[in-house]
Write a structure and sequence with these properties.
three-stranded antiparallel β-sheet; 2 helices
Length: 79
């Protein structure tokens, strides 16, 4: 079912903080690409909710990631 990003989440922020294994080393947690490597005009081309996750396709590069709702909620919590 198509959906929208939760309030307060921009496509640019989500792409820059993407937790998938292509963007973030699962062992060290180190970011694998610089924010400057990402498209300047990021967008969400596709977003589908699957249980406790969002299947996100970013534009214009077509990067795809499964983003868990629990990760997103934790990332949005003020420190």
């Amino acid at each position: 079912m198509p959906t929208t990003l939760p309030a307060g989440v921009s496509a640019s922020w989500l792409r820059a903080n993407c937790p998938c294994a292509s963007c973030l080393d699962p062992g060290s947690g180190q970011r694998l690409a610089s924010i400057t490597d990402q498209p300047a005009e990021g967008s969400v081309r596709g977003l589908t909710e699957h249980g406790d996750s969002y299947d996100v396709t970013f534009g214009p590069d077509g990067h795809r990631a499964m983003i868990s709702k629990s990760w997103l909620a934790a990332a949005l919590q003020p420190e």
